[in-house]
Amino acid sequence: MPDKRIRVLHATSSLGLGGTEKVMQSFVTHLDKNIFHTTVYSPADGPRGKLLRQAGIDTFIGTDLLALLKKLRPHIVHIHRAGWTQPGMLRPFKLANIPVLVETNIFGHHDPSPEGTLIDRHLFVSHFCAKRFEQVNSIPANKPKYSVLYNPVDTDFFSNNCAADRDFPANSFGRISRSDKGKWSSLALTFLPILKNLVSENKIPAFHYNIIGGIPEAEKYVSDNHLDELVHFLPPILTDKEISQFMNSISFLAHANDTGESFGLVIAEAMAAGLPVITHPCDGLRDNAQLELVDHGKTGFIANNAQEYAEAVRFLMTHPEEARILGENGRSKATRLFKAQNIAKKLEQIYLELLEMKKDIQPK
């Protein structure tokens, strides 16, 4: 019998370790397989590609995109990109006469090019991105052209693997990111000498700051300030199992990134794991969705400078029960807003609504 499912192709620039690729992976694995047949295209393979294939998702790597589109004849193409103009990127979708083109607009940018008009729905990953888009471009971010869809998080997995009643490691906290200078802020380090002085004065115990995604500048700072006994650089990780193991090895997440977050997947995952989060605001029109995720005094703390950051760390280290309450508040928020199955259902409804609008040009 012919396959009558809706054919959906997700397209992304790579299949690496980044949050963009992980979000795409979550979407394609959580869409209802009785309704949708999903495939993935990327010019470059990577570790995320292996996980997709293990999950039974067909991946097409580096092949001619137009030829692939003509072969697969997808009803829907869902692209994951920054949102700005990328000359020629959307041309294959126009030539292949794709009925529905959806964009996850990662950073909330505007594509004013003629190709940009091909996109039927722009999905912003946070309300912050949608509001900034309206502010900068004077374009209402309303349906049917625009809507907000949070990034999905496997909250069930983190709940099962990061139990609420687990014993949190004393005086241990951490950060996790890609090993990329653009993912860092000096604030991720400059609070450390303040804490080191408190340790030397016996005002707080010695601590362990575990870092995944270290960069040479961070390693040099740690060495130059004689922090080697307090700071530990760890290798990169990929799967939710590895992330949950890391979350179980710390008692709260220390986040700092000068460019900010258009969503903040690691923050959301830490919340899902029951950990409080310390973060900071960013200046001007930089990404600030981290402030949408972290509620000061309820799910973590927002620090404006190194002194405030150090004080937040000190508080969480010395008030474990209060830290546990903050973490569980974060878990509840993550489950309510980011649960992967619920986000996938919302995406399915968007797909069906757009297909209904374009029903006269659907491929057979």
UniProtKB/TrEMBL annotation:
Domain of life where this protein originates: Bacteria
Molecular function terms, GO-annotated: transferase activity
Entry keywords, A to Z: Transferase
One Pfam family here: Glyco_trans_1_4
Alphabetized PANTHER family for the sequence: GLYCOSYLTRANSFERASE
Protein name (record): Glycosyl transferase group 1
The species this protein was found in: Maridesulfovibrio hydrothermalis AM13 = DSM 14728
